[in-house]
C-alpha cells in the first residue's frame, strides 16, 4: 500500500512540541485502539499530526521536515511521545516504514544509535474528523483569547455532575462588540471580556473544561491571530500551526448577570501580594486536603485582620488597607478560593467591593478593568 511508504526526518524538539499539543485529548484507557493513536500524515512536504477522542479533534502541522515521502499511518500516541521526548533535542529523528516477515507494518524511528520499531494501524480506518458547519467566523488576537482563558479557567466547576457549568462560556456579543469569557463553580464567578468588532451575530457557546485545558496549551505555543468557526454544536479554533475542533456542552449556562451585584460603591484596597501571602500563612495551619474552611476578615478604616477558623490551632495576621466605610466589617470567605483569585490579579493593589457580611464580594484588578470576580461569603 502506498500509505506504508511514508518517510520523513524532523528535529526532535520540534516534533515533541507538535505532539504535546495534541496528545492531551487522547484517553489512555480508550476502548478503540485507534483512539489510543495519533495519525501521522505526510503530504506535499508537510507533516500533520492528528488526535481525537470523538468529542474533540486536534491537528498540529509542521513544515520543517526533510526527505518527505507522502503517506499516512496510525501509531500508539503515548509510546511515540515517550520515545521522542527522551531523544536529544538538538538532533534529527528519521522515520520510515517497513513490513516484517508476518507482513505487519512497523514505523522505524532512528536517532543516532537509538532505534525503535512501533506497530502501526491503517490510517484509512482512523475516525472521521469533526467538522464545524459554521454560522460565523470571528478573528481575534491570541493574546485576547489567552486573557479570557487564563482569567476564567480556575473558576470552572470541576465535577461533571453539574454539566452546564463544567466548562467556560464564550459569549460573542455583537451589540456591545465584545467577547466575554465566563466561568463559575457556584461559589465564585469569573467575568472577563475583550473588544471585538468582527462579530456578525450574537452567539453563546460553552466549551468543556477538559478542552479549555487543551486550548490553553495551544495558546501558549502560538502567536498572531486565531480564527474561530462557530456553530450551535461545535467550535473550531484555527491557528497558524494547529487547530482544535470540539463539541460544545449541550446545556444552558446559568444567567450569570443575575449574580453580579450592580449597586456596590464601598470597597477596601490592599496590596495584592501581601494579602495573598498573609492568607497563605494564616491557612497554613489547616490540615492537608482541607479546602472548605474559611478565614475571617475584619476590615477597618486602615487595616484588614485575617483570622483562622474551625481548627484546634489558631493563626492571625494583619495588613495595612484602606476602607471607604467608617464602620468596621467582618467577612468570612473560603481561603482556597480567595487565594486562587488573588493569584490572578496582576496589579500591585486589589479592590474588594463589599456591601455587608452576607453579600458577595466583587474582586477587581486596580489597573485592568477587563476582568473581575464575584466571591460568595461563608456564614460567620
Characterization of the model:
β20 (303-308) and β21 form a beta hairpin. The chain has helices at residues 12-20, 77-85, 142-152, 209-221, 272-282, 335-342, and strands at 7-11, 37-43, 46-52, 56-62, 66-69, 71-76, 92-99, 105-111, 114-122, 136-141, 167-173, 178-184, 188-195, 203-208, 225-230, 234-238, 242-247, 267-271, 294-299, 303-308, 316-323, 329-334, 349-353, 361-365, 371-375. It has six helices and 25 strands.
Uncertain spans: none
**End-to-end distance:** 72 Å
Q: Compute the average pLDDT.
A: 93
- What is the helix content? 10-25%
Beta-strand fraction estimate: 35-45%
Overall shape: it is: elongated
Q: Order of strands side by side in the largest beta sheet?
A: 5-1-7-8-9-6-2-3-4-17-16-15-10
Largest sheet: 13 strands, antiparallel
What is the gist of this entry?
The protein starts with 6 loop residues before the first strand and ends in a 5-residue tail after the last strand. Helix 1 (12-20) packs antiparallel against helix 2 (77-85).
Amino acid at each position: 500500500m502506498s500509505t506504508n511508504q511514508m518517510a520523513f526526518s524532523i528535529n526532535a524538539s520540534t516534533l515533541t512540541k507538535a505532539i504535546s499539543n495534541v496528545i492531551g485529548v487522547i484517553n489512555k484507557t480508550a476502548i478503540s485502539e485507534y483512539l489510543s493513536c495519533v495519525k501521522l500524515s505526510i503530504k506535499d512536504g508537510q507533516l500533520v499530526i492528528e488526535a481525537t477522542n470523538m468529542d474533540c479533534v486536534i491537528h498540529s502541522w509542521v513544515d520543517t521536515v526533510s526527505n518527505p515521502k507522502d503517506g499516512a499511518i496510525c501509531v500508539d500516541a503515548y509510546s511515540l511521545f515517550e520515545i521522542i521526548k527522551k531523544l536529544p533535542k538538538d538532533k534529527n529523528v528519521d522515520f520510515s516504514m517497513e513490513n516484517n516477515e508476518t507482513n505487519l507494518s512497523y514505523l522505524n524511528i532512528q536517532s543516532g544509535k537509538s532505534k525503535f520499531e512501533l506497530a502501526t494501524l491503517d490510517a484509512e480506518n482512523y475516525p472521521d474528523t469533526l467538522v464545524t458547519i459554521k454560522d460565523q467566523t470571528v478573528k481575534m488576537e491570541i493574546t485576547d483569547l489567552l486573557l479570557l482563558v487564563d482569567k476564567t479557567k480556575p473558576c470552572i466547576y470541576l465535577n461533571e455532575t453539574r454539566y452546564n457549568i463544567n466548562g467556560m462560556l464564550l459569549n460573542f456579543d455583537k451589540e456591545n462588540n465584545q467577547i466575554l469569557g465566563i466561568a463559575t463553580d457556584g461559589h465564585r464567578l469569573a467575568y472577563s471580556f475583550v473588544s471585538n468588532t468582527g462579530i456578525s451575530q450574537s452567539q453563546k457557546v460553552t466549551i468543556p473544561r477538559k478542552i479549555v485545558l487543551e486550548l490553553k496549551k495551544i495558546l501558549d505555543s502560538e502567536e498572531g491571530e486565531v480564527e474561530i468557526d462557530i456553530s450551535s454544536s461545535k467550535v473550531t479554533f484555527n491557528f497558524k500551526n494547529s487547530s482544535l475542533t470540539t463539541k460544545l456542552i449541550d446545556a444552558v449556562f446559568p444567567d450569570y448577570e443575575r449574580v453580579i451585584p450592580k449597586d456596590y460603591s464601598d470597597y477596601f484596597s490592599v496590596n495584592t501580594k501581601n494579602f495573598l501571602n498573609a492568607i497563605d500563612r494564616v491557612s497554613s495551619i489547616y490540615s492537608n486536603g482541607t479546602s472548605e474552611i474559611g478565614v475571617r476578615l475584619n476590615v477597618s478604616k486602615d487595616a484588614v485582620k485575617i483570622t483562622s477558623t474551625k481548627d484546634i490551632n489558631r493563626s492571625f495576621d494583619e495588613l495595612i488597607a484602606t476602607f471607604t466605610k467608617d464602620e468596621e466589617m467582618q467577612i468570612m470567605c473560603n481561603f482556597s478560593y480567595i487565594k486562587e483569585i488573588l493569584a490572578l490579579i496582576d496589579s500591585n493593589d486589589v479592590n474588594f467591593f463589599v456591601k455587608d457580611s452576607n453579600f458577595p464580594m466583587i474582586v477587581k484588578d486596580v489597573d485592568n478593568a477587563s476582568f473581575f470576580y464575584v466571591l460568595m461569603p461563608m456564614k460567620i
